[in-house]
Amino acid sequence: VTANDMAIPRLKLLQMINPEVQPGGPEQVQGAQAGMIMNSVNNELFTSVFLINLNFTRKTVVWKKRKQGGGMEGQYDTEAEALASLADQGLNQADYDVSENPTHLVLLLNDDGEPKATALLDMPGTKVKISKIWNTKIAEQEELGNPRYGCVWQLKVVSQSNSSGNFFNYAIDLVVVAPDEMYGKAQAAYNAFFGNKEAKAA
What we know:
Elements: E1 10-13, E2 37-39, E3 45-46, E4 48-64, E5 72-76, H1 79-89, E6 96-109, E7 115-122, H2 128-143, E8 151-162, E9 165-177, H3 180-194
Parallel strand pairs: 1-7
Antiparallel strand pairs: 1-2, 2-3, 4-5, 4-6, 4-8, 6-7, 8-9
């Protein structure tokens, strides 16, 4: 069994509009509240989590609008492919947002620093700025000789607001440069995901 044979969790930042936090709703997750981070596979909930950034990609993603219940419809290489997919499926384009979607492949860690699981962290919309800040911090560490998966970060949640109202967003803090043993486990996690090849920073 390889990574291709298993569901890859996605980390989801819950907002007030998400069905997982609606009391009595069909998709309610027990204990879920707006401002929590949820593992999409096992519904585990976090208020913050320690992780290592393994890889970074940027795709065009189609998201169902929050008023329509939210959720990802699909991921594409170009905006033209995304729009064509909506048309082919007979879906109303007005119900969806087509946007740049930075995605970080991360290794989740237990509180004691042991690897827990690999997950995908999507950062579209208001999270794009946070993704760019994170990549900048990673680049600064690379200049110091610490590769992308050579650092432990803490992913936290903060409250923000804009013209559309209040919402929750991510914040990222550097915790520590990973010791050699943890670095080796991060490299093994990367190889398990992409195959046995050398990891490269984006």
